[in-house]
Structures are given as structure tokens and as C-alpha cells.
Amino acid sequence: MAKYFDVHPDNPQKRSIGQVVDILREDGLIAYPTDSCFALGAQLGNKEGMERIRSIRHLDDRHHFTLVCQNFAQLGQFVIINNAVFRAIKASTPGSYTFILPATKEVPRRLLHPKKKTVGVRIPNHVVVQSLLAELGEPMLSSTLLLPGEEEPMTQGWQIKDELDHVLDAVIDSGDCGTEPTTVVDFSGPEPEVVRYGAGDPSRFE
User: Fold this and answer.
1) Phi, psi of 85 (to 5 degrees)
2) Which controlled-vocabulary keywords does the entry list (predicted)?
3) Is residue 168 within 8 Å of 42, Cβ to Cβ?
4) What is the pLDDT of residues 20-59, one digit of tens each?
5) Which ranges constitute the DSSP H helices of 76-152?
6) What does the alpha-carbon distance between residue 68 and residue 148 come to, in Å, rounded to a whole number?
């Protein structure tokens, strides 16, 4: 059964955040709100957590997992960014964007796109997520909580707890969450390419 945490959206309770991070460190899988929609999260080194996300979402090995980072300094440890890309991403973070970039050796090989050796990264503009990341001290492996056959992610914490109780270890609820996933921009080619239109304004990358 998943533990249910009702967390204040503006002043997250330290005790609750600490308990969720303990679950992550014990190789747990969580559902949590972001500035776009609910997502699934696990600790970076949690191999079983990655497979559990694949199972829940029916993902193949070409799916880009996302490293949710607390800040730009952390993001820069895990992806390779040139100056032009740095400026473009810096101007759009924190926010509802995921950026696909070549990974550094800090990223476990199993998380990389098998051919391109890329990974998704993002810095969310969400108080609860930032509190989680600050306590965890490293990026969180993440994927949008979009179930197979559904067109939109679930928006209510209680609904997620109800439907996914048997496959999750914790659900964080901090009020209403959006239905639009992040806008995904692929910077691994010669020009930026918007590969998913979502909550972030894509016009600055087109």
C-alpha cells in the first residue's frame, strides 16, 4: 500500500518531506505533483524503480526518462551543454520544460536512450518538488504519470492513491495539479526541435 501525504503547497511540512525522501532512499516509487502534472519518481540509482515505471506506463527502451534537478548547477553535472544551449535553457528554467541533451558519465547507462546516449532533464517551478530535491540532495528519476490508453494524466492525489495503491510506495498530494505534461525540446541535434507540445510556451524554441 502507498502511504498518502497531504503536503501544504506553499509551506511543505519538513516531516512529510523527510518521510517521502526516506521512502525514495529505500528504493521506493512515488507519485508527486509538479508545475505541469503528476509524475512518477524514484532515486537515480534505483534500477527496480525504473522498471516499475516502465511497467506502469508500458514504456519501451526508446523512452526518454527525465532527471528532475533542483537547480542549474545540478543539471550541469548530468548533461553536456554548450554556451548557446545554456542561454536558451537558462532563460526557460525553472519551468514546465524537459530538455533532451547528451548525457555525461554521471548518468547510469540504463537511463540513456540506447542509440543517442541522451537523457531528459528539467528544473520544475514547484515548491513541493524543490523541497523534495533539496532534502534528497540529487536529481530524481522521473516520468509523467500518464497511464496506458489514457489521453491525460490523473490530476487528483486521492485518485492516484486509489488506482495505483498496489504499485506505488507513496503519493504526495498538494492540491490541484495540471493535465498538461511538460513541453519537450530536443537539443541533441544541430537545431532545437520541439518533440512534445505541453505546458511550457514552445515559441521560443521554434
Assistant:
1) -65, -40
2) Nucleotidyltransferase, Transferase
3) no
4) 999 999 999 999 999 999 999 999 999 999 999 999 999 9
5) 83-90, 127-136
6) 22
Is the bond preceding residue 94 a cis peptide, omega within 30 degrees?
yes
Listed in sequence order, the residues at least 6 apart from 47 whose beta carbon sits closer than 8 Å to its beta carbon are 108, 110
For residues 129 and 174, give the distance between their C-alpha atoms in angstroms, rounded to a whole number. Answer: 10
What is the pTM (predicted TM-score) of this model?
A: 0.95
pLDDT value of position 126: 96
Q: How far apart are CA 197 and CA 35, in angstroms?
A: 15
Q: Decide if 21 contacts 160 (C-beta within 8 A).
A: no
Residue closest to 179 by CA, chosen among 138, 145, 204:
145
Q: Which three cell numbers stand for residue 94?
A: 525553472
C-alpha cell at 180: 498538461
Cell of 55: 511497467
- At residue 95, the 3 state secondary structure works out as coil
Q: Check: CB of residue 67 under 8 Å from CB of residue 97.
A: no
**If pLDDT is split at 50, 70 and 90, which confidence band does 139 have?**
very high
- The answer to whether 140 and 132 are in contact (CB under 8 A) is yes
